[in-house]
Fold:
Amino acid sequence: MKHSAQGAARTGAGAGPGAAAEAVRIPVQPGAADRARDRAPGGAEPDGPARGEHTHGEPPVPRPRPLVQRSSVRGQILDALRSALVTGELRPGEVYSAPVLGERFGVSATPVREAMQQLALEGAVEVVPNRGFRVLERGDRELAELAEVRALIEVPVWLRLARTVPAEHWAELRPLAEATVRAASSGCPATYAEADRAFHRAVLALAGNEQLVRIAGDAHRRAQWPPAGSPSVRGRADLVADAHQHTALLDALIAGDPAVVRTLIGDHFTATP
Structure:
């Protein structure tokens, strides 16, 4: 299946910094003290008292590092860039620099660079020395291979769970299935992609295998990146049809109908790569 997501970050042409920052609620650009701290080893506070501060010989009191705030910024940037990838706002083949993207988000280059490095590990971009990060161009063959990988991983697990998981446990996933329908009805591909991954993740979690959930989730996310030259946004009708497969599957799983479950699972994993 190929799921698209609306990018919160307007990194394509014509996207201004204000709109992107507002969309993902990025905190304001760190001040001088924050930049000085980032330059210190390990992100620690700069040595010595602030100007005008009287210590009177007291031993220095360690200050907690603001890891929560920095992690939050980096996480928001990463989410925004991932959304921009699946919508094509970060265009395949184009090179983007961390300072320029940082200006668009209203943050320093550091969290952008860290987010891009994570995307490089995920296979979405590659590092271009002294320039930035190039969005990798992906063809139909790669997407077909990812769809096959997802089917090989998920379909046997779904079928096994259909035989072993009690109906009441499947019923507990009803809110997540319905959330995908609401997300699809909104017409927002980004919202739908997130809801879709959440539903699949919850189903696989029933197997009790964290590595399975992680690997399948990574393949699912990669399958959402469109190939070069393809339409970047799926239509509302397409999203709604895909979401209703979730609720139909859940109905069959609760009813304990293995034949219908097998048919629906096959359709769900082959209809849209």
About this structure: Strands lie at 95-96, 125-128, 132-135.
